[in-house]
Amino acid sequence: MRVRGAHGRLDAVAAPRRAPYDEDDVRLPRVSPLLFRRLAIAAAVCYALLVVTGGAVRLTGSGLGCLDWPTCSRSSVTPAVSFHPLVEFSNRMVSVAVTVLSAATFLASLATRPRRRDAVILSSGLVAGILGQIVIGGIVVLTKLDPYWVAVHFLLTLAVLADAIVLSTRTRVAPGRRVPVVGSDLVWLARVLLLTISVLVVAGTFVTGSGPHAGGPGAIRIPIAFRDMAELHADIALFLVGATLATVFALHQARAPALVQRRARTMLEVLALQGALGYTQYFLHDNALVVELHLAGATAAFSATVLLYLSLHRVEEPRASSSVAPSDEPLRRAARAVAKASA
C-alpha cells in the first residue's frame, strides 16, 4: 500500500494485517430471554409427560413391548402394529422429544444475551439427566424390568423435572442473590416438606415394585409384603398432609406474600386429591387406571412442593449507592459573582 508523503513522494506503508476473521463480521445466533424461558417450560412439561407415559408402559404390561434397545427389535427401529410395542415405543418417542428439548435449552442458554451462569448450569443438568435416563432405560430393558432399576429410572425423571422447574422459574426474574421472603423457621418447614415428599415418592416406587403391576410378563417383584409397604406409604402421606396443613396456617399467621400462600394451598389441595386416589387404589386392589391417575397426581404434588419452596425466595434488589453526588454550589456562587461584576 502506498500513500503520498509530505513532499509529494509515494511512500510505502505496510497495510494492516487482517485477522482470520473480523468479530464485526461474525454473526453469532442470539436467543431472546422470552424464547429461552419458553424452551425451559416446554422441557418441564415434557419431563412431566415422560413420567405419565412411563407409568402407562408399566401399568399396561408393555415394559417389554420393545425387546431391544435402542431399537424396538433387532430388525427394526419402529414397533410392530400391536398394542404393547406401540405403548412402549410411544414412551420412547416422548424421550426423544425430551432429549431434543434438553439439548435445545442448553444451546439456548449459551446463546442468550446477557448469558446467565445459573441458566447454563441448570440447562446442563437437563442434558446430564437425559443422558442418564437413556443409559438407565437401556439397563431396565436389558435386565428384563428389574424393579430396582425401574425405581431409579422413575426417581431420576423426577429429579430432572425438578431441575427443569427451577430453570423455568429462574428465567422469570433477573439474576442475583436470592433472599428469603419469610422467616428462617418457615423456610426450614418447607425443606421438611421437600424431604418428606421425596421419601414418599421413594416409598411409592417400592409399593408399585411389590404390587401386581410388574410392567411385563415374567418381571420379578421386590420381596416386600405389598400390604405392609402400602401402609407405610400411607403413613408418610398422612404426615405430609398434616405438615402441609401446618405450613398453610403458619404462612397465613406470618402474613407471607400472596404467591407463597396460594402455592401452599395448591399443594394442600393436590395432596388431598392424592389421598383420595391412594385409598381408592388400595380398595380397588391397584386398579391400573387409578394407579395411573395416582402417578400423575404424585408428579403434580412433587412439582407443587418444588414451586412452593422456590416462591419463598426472591432476588435481592441492588442497594442504592452510598456515595454523595458532588454539590454544584461552588458553580452557583461563581455565576452570582460574575453577574454582580458585570452589573
What are the key terms here?
343 residues, mainly alpha, 2 domains, two-stranded antiparallel ribbon, two-stranded antiparallel sheet, 3% strand
Sheet-strand content, in percent, reads under 5%
Name the strands of the widest sheet in spatial order.
Answer: 1-2
Mean pLDDT: 80
Secondary-structure class: mainly alpha
Write structural notes for this entry:
With 343 residues, this protein is mostly helical. The protein has two domains: 28-176, no CATH class; 178-315, no CATH class. It is 66% helix and 3% strand. The protein has nine helices and four strands; from the N terminus they run ββααααβααααβα. The protein has helices at 33-59, 83-111, 117-142, 147-170, 184-210, 226-253, 258-283, 288-311, 329-342, and strands at 2-4, 10-12, 178-180, 313-315. Strands 1-2 form a two-stranded antiparallel sheet. Strands 3-4 form a two-stranded antiparallel sheet. Helix 7 runs antiparallel to helix 8. The longest helix has 29 residues, at 83-111. The N and C termini lie far apart (62 Å).
Helix-strand layout with pairing:
Blueprint: E1 2-4, E2 10-12, H1 33-59, H2 83-111, H3 117-142, H4 147-170, E3 178-180, H5 184-210, H6 226-253, H7 258-283, H8 288-311, E4 313-315, H9 329-342
Antiparallel strand pairs: 1-2, 3-4
Helix pairs in contact: 1-2, 1-4, 1-8, 2-3, 3-4, 4-5, 4-8, 5-6, 5-8, 6-7, 7-8
